Amino acid sequence: MNSFIEKENILTFGNKSIDVSNVSYHRIEKSIETWNKAISKEGFTEKEINDMCEKVGLYLIRQDFSVLRLRLSFIESVKNYVKRNLLTVNHIKKSNKAEYDTFQDWVYFSLTGNKKKDLETDASMMETTRKIYREMEAQGITQEQCSTLLLTLLQDQVKELKILNKDHKVS
Length: 171
Fold this sequence. Notes:
The model has no long low-confidence stretch (mean pLDDT 81). By secondary structure, the chain is mostly helical. The radius of gyration is 25 Å and the shape is elongated. The chain has helices at residues 25-39, 46-61, 65-71, 74-86, 89-93, 97-112, 116-138, 143-158; strands spanning 10-13, 16-19. It is built from 8 helices and 2 strands; from the N terminus they run E-E-H-H-H-H-H-H-H-H. The chain folds into 2 domains: 2-113, no CATH class; 122-157, no CATH class.
């Protein structure tokens, strides 16, 4: 029985708290398919992405009774099942900014396995690289020369420090 129990991950929506740690793999697969179909079209807006996130998130939260029964007693499973199915998009939309961001992070992590912060870090690194290339091109340096300079800088940064003067007291 302990093999079905994962570390608790509680999402709150106003006064409702729901443990979302044990989502079945089948629901995650269906959610990924739904997400990919919706995102495949071009020209979608942020509102459409948020709506899709809410739809997929509700689907992931509304777990099957059999999955809940593996983790909880019968009565707790029934209570939890009813609470999950009574949760609506309005509850999610009425939550505060921090709760909504946590919900979106959880949905995105459930679908991709990557944390949003890791993706934001990658995006900021790419933006920094673009700025460096633009600055180098403004100075008349080609991309190959810029890459060489960046690699040289990186090698200098990670090179081990050498002791210039030996400390005679240590030896």
